[in-house]
Design brief:
By secondary structure, the protein is mainly alpha-helical. Helix content is 50%, strand content 12%. The strands form four sheets. Strands 1-4 form a two-stranded antiparallel sheet. Strand 6 and strand 7 form a beta hairpin. The longest helix has 32 residues. The protein is globular, with a radius of gyration of 21 Å.
Length: 270
């Protein structure tokens, strides 16, 4: 899905970015400085590889005669998506976008899937009898309590106030998704893990559920990521037996809100 059947050098850069930054920095929490140095080096490598790709791969989506259906048929991976974007984007711009898409797919969605499997095992969903609708509620309750995007940053469009605090146009406002999802003013028993609450949501609760943000800057993977988490979560919880051992009680919070240190062991059923 990231770089399907691409040149070895491009796939090596993808692996290096995932291992040195997404996993090491955001999930494991190793030293940050070397990771950031490697991000710049890998981005330069991505830019060079994107610059070298055959012209037909960069021009297909930009040709006026190409229909939406034709363009969709040409998309095999994230590299196609990045190369097919219209506009005056340099290879460096496209390289940065590719890195962000990889972070979203492997980092945010991957960490969310870890939470779904871990909590599913701990709360009795790890059984061949688990139903897709049960996993659907499990996924939403997991994202409520442990949103991998645990804070959002938005730029104020106008001068206004938030609970009496003046905010000027252009200032950046941090929105604590994790805190909103645990607010007793919105959620009944907010700290309890209760997937059944998703069978009877109030309007306030629907508005307060922000794992992908809201409005014009909402994560475009909103619908796809939920379906992917539901599908993969059901495949794993239904098809594998699991054991969880946690070494620390608190999640690891950096760019992502990742599960605490420990391990989850899966063994195929039957």
């Amino acid at each position: 899905m990231i770089a399907h059947h691409r040149h070895t050098a491009l796939n090596s850069l993808v692996d290096a970015y995932v291992e040195s930054s997404v996993i090491a920095d955001d999930v494991v929490g190793r030293v940050v400085t070397p990771s950031h140095r490697s991000v710049r080096r890998i981005r330069a490598g991505f830019a060079e590889q994107l610059r070298r790709l055959p012209a037909r791969e960069t021009e297909a989506a930009a040709t006026p005669a190409t229909t939406a259906t034709d363009a969709d048929a040409d998309v095999r991976d994230l590299v196609d998506v990045v190369l097919g974007l219209r506009g005056e984007l340099t290879p460096a711009d496209r390289a940065q976008l590719l890195q962000r898409l990889i972070l979203s797919m492997v980092g945010f969605t991957g960490a969310a899937l870890e939470w779904v499997v871990l909590l599913g095992i701990q709360h009795g969903y790890n059984t061949p009898a688990v139903r897709p609708d049960q996993v659907r509620s499990l996924v939403r309750e997991t994202l409520r309590l442990y949103p991998t995007a645990w804070r959002l940053v938005r730029e104020a469009a106008t001068d206004h106030e938030i609970r009496g605090v003046p905010v000027s146009k252009g200032e950046h406002v941090m929105i604590g998704t994790h805190a909103i999802h645990r607010s007793g003013a919105v959620w009944d028993r907010p700290l309890d893990f209760d997937p059944s609450r998703w069978e009877r949501l109030t309007d306030d609760q629907r508005r307060a559920f922000l794992p992908f943000g809201k409005g014009a800057e909402m994560c475009p993977a909103n619908g796809f990521a939920l379906k992917a988490l539901e599908h993969l979560g059901h495949l794993i919880l239904h098809g594998y037996r699991g054991t969880v051992r946690i070494r620390k009680r608190t999640p690891h919070a950096r760019t992502l809100l990742a599960p605490p240190a420990g391990w989850t062991r899966l063994t195929k059923s039957g």
